[in-house]
Design goal:
By secondary structure, the protein is an alpha/beta fold. It has eight helices and 14 strands. The model has no long low-confidence stretch (mean pLDDT 92).
Length: 268
């Protein structure tokens, strides 16, 4: 019996216009009635996730910043920060390669050493604070995200590859990559929630589409890559869901999670 469902947002639960399916309200209500925990797990910050679900009254676990900051009913379940000295070391390199394309996500704020993300961030409902030097900000950083074209992404990844054994560095979209504390993956986030709510591998369902969802595929028997997912993610998933523009997540929940519950109710 499925007890926990964790879904990525962009490219997965959200369609290409960054909207939720109108049927999400009924689905979440039914999940709550069946005591199935729903987790919004994303590279997005907590404020962005709450904005997405602002019209939804059902209980949701928010696993923001790739599962490095998890809350449920306003209780902080888990927080995993990058060490300050590592933030400073990475920032020195990023200033040379992608200063104008980088944001630093803390628990209650987002920072950038450029004004550009503050302007562009409005499109994503991000309130970005400008700082001349991130190392001088008295705040703890959960995630660093760099955006840009292929050239910017590749040159920056090449420049910071020496940190691969000290930080979790992964592409989170076709035009961005994330840096988190070592081990700070969505898989870790799901595992923490499984332990907290006493949910097993065979009772967990996950959905994802990009490389920051890759590790998460091994945390659940019901692991679904979207039809529009990266090939590497598809290879590591047990099942394939429809595309994000065809309500792939919603359809699987209805066809698998709900039907399984109904079948179990008839078992002797």
């Amino acid at each position: 019996m499925i007890k926990l469902i964790a879904s990525d947002m962009d490219g997965t639960l959200l369609n290409s216009k960054k909207h939720l399916s109108p049927s999400i309200h009924d689905v979440l209500k039914k999940l709550k009635n069946k005591d199935i925990i729903f987790v919004a797990i994303s590279g997005r910050d907590i404020f962005s996730l709450k904005e997405i679900f602002k019209d939804v009254e059902e209980d949701i676990v928010y696993a923001s910043n790739n599962g490095n900051y998890i809350t449920y009913k306003n209780e902080v379940i888990f927080e995993n920060y990058i060490e300050n000295n590592m933030v400073e070391k990475v920032a020195k390199i990023i200033r040379k390669k992608a200063k104008h394309n980088t944001i630093y996500c803390a628990k209650d704020a987002i920072y950038s050493e450029s004004l550009i993300p503050a302007i562009v961030g409005r499109k994503w409902n991000l309130k970005v604070k400008y700082t001349r030097d991130i190392a001088k900000v008295e705040d703890k950083i959960l995630k660093i995200t760099t955006f840009g074209n292929k050239k910017i992404i590749n040159r920056t990844l090449e420049a910071i590859r020496g940190f691969n054994n000290k930080l979790m560095i992964t592409k989170s979209g076709s035009t961005c990559f994330d840096i988190c504390n070592l081990g700070g993956t969505k898989k870790q986030g799901v595992n923490i929630l499984q332990e907290k709510f006493n949910v097993g591998y065979n009772e967990t369902m996950v959905f994802g589409d990009h490389m920051n969802d890759l590790e998460m595929m091994s945390s659940a028997y019901y692991s679904y890559a979207m039809e529009n997912a990266e090939e590497e993610v598809k290879k590591n998933a047990r099942f394939i869901a429809g595309t994000n523009d065809d309500d792939g997540v919603i359809k699987v929940i209805k066809e698998v999670a709900f039907c399984e519950e109904e079948l179990n109710s008839y078992s002797i």
